[in-house]
Specification:
This protein is mainly alpha-helical. The protein has 19 helices and 6 strands. Strands 1-2 form a two-stranded antiparallel ribbon. It has a two-stranded antiparallel ribbon with strand order 3-4. The longest helix is centred in the middle third of the chain and has 34 residues. The radius of gyration is 25 Å and the shape is globular.
Length: 443
Amino acid sequence: MKKISAVLRRAAVFAVTVLALWTALTAAAAIPNERIYDNMYSSAMFFKDKVPYVYDSQMRLVQDNYADAILLNVVWNMGSGEPFSAALNTAYYDGNDGTNDYGENWGFFCAVEGTAAPNTDYSRYWHGMGAVIRPLMLFTDVGGIKLIGTITAFVLLAVNAALLLKKRQYFAAGALVAAFLCVHMWNIGISLEYQPAVLVTLALLPFYIIMERNDGALSIFSVISGVMIAFFDFLTCETLTILVPLIIVFIMRKQENRLPVLKESVLLTVKCGAAWLLSYAGTFLVKWTAASIVTGENKFVTALASVEERFVGEAEQLSPVAQFFLAPAANISTLFGGTVRVDWRAFAAGLAISAVVLGAIFYLFRYREKFDRNFTLIMLILGALPFARFFLLNNHSYLHEFFTYRALASSILAVFAGVWYTLEFRPKKKKSPAKGGKKRGRN
C-alpha cells in the first residue's frame, strides 16, 4: 500500500509540474506580438546575415545561430492565433520560398516582418524557453537575454556553493564550482540554447542540498527535474540535471560518515534515476499527445522519426560503428580544446596530462586508512553515465559535441570526489633505510 501511495504521489507531482509549466507557456503565448515586436525585430536583424554556426579557434566556442534563430522563430509564432493551441502546435518559417532556400536565419527575419507564414513543424519539443523569452522580450533583445541567463547561472552557482559552505561541506562547494568551470560555463552566453540545462540543474540543486537526508524527497525532486529539463531543453546536456544533484548528495553523506551500504546507495540512484527518466519521457509524451489532439494530426510520427535519427542516424558518411565510438571521442576532445569535431591531438594530450596529474597525486599521497570502496564505485557509476548517453545517442552526441560535452561536468565532479575521498593529502612517509650489522655495545 505504501508503494502504491508513493507512486501516486510522484504521479501527482509530475502532473502538477507539467500543468504549471504548460500554463506558463500558454500565458507567455498570450503576450501580443506587437508588444515584443521591437526587440524581436532587433534580434532578427542580429541573425539575418549571420552564418548558421560561427566557428572560432576551438569547438567549445561555436556560436549556434542556427538553433537560436529557430528557437526565436518558434517563440515569435507562438504569438499568432489562440494562445493555448499556439503553445502546442509549434512551427517556424525555414527561409525556403519554394524557389530558393535562404536559411533559417533569414526565415526568422521574414517571420518577424510578417512576410512569411510558418512552414516547418517543430512540435516534437516543448520549446519551454518561450515562457521565459517572450516576457523578457518586453524589455530586451536576444543579446540582453543571453547576458541575463549567463549572470543568473553564475548567481545560482554561487548560491549553491554558499549553501554547501554553510553546511560545512567545503569540498563539495569547491568541487561543484571547479567542475562547472572545467566545462567553460561562461561560454553558455554564446547561445540561448546552451543555457537551459545549466540553469535547471543549478536552480534545483539547492532543494537536493537542503533535503539530502530525505530519500523520498530526493526522488520527488527528480520527477520535477525530469519534467523541467524536457520542457526547457532540446537535448544538450540533460543528464546534468540528475547526476550533479545525486553526486553532491553522496558527497555530503560521505563527508559526514552517513553514506549507507552500497546496496542502499545503488537503490537510491536507481529510484531517482527512474523517477527522472520516466518524467523526462512522460513530458514528451504529454506534448505529442496534446499537440495531436489540438491539431488533429499525428505528431508521434515525426517525433519518433527524429528520435530514431538521434539513435541510429549516420553523420558525415560515417559507418554506425565508427560514429558509435567517435561520439565520446568528439566530446572529450572538445573538453580539452579541440579545434575540429574529433581532434585526436587534443584528445590524446588531454587524457595524457590528466593521467600524469592523477598518477602523480596517487604516487605522492597516501590512501586513507578507511578507504571506502563503495563510495568510489558509486562515483564511477555516476561518472560513467554521460558516456552511456554519448554512446546511446551517438548521432546527436557526435554532431553537436560543441554543447553536449558540458555533460562531462558531472563526470569531472565524480572524479574529484573519488580522488578526494580515496587519498589523504599528506605526503607518504619515507621508509627508513635498513641499518646493517649489529649494534656496538658501550665500552
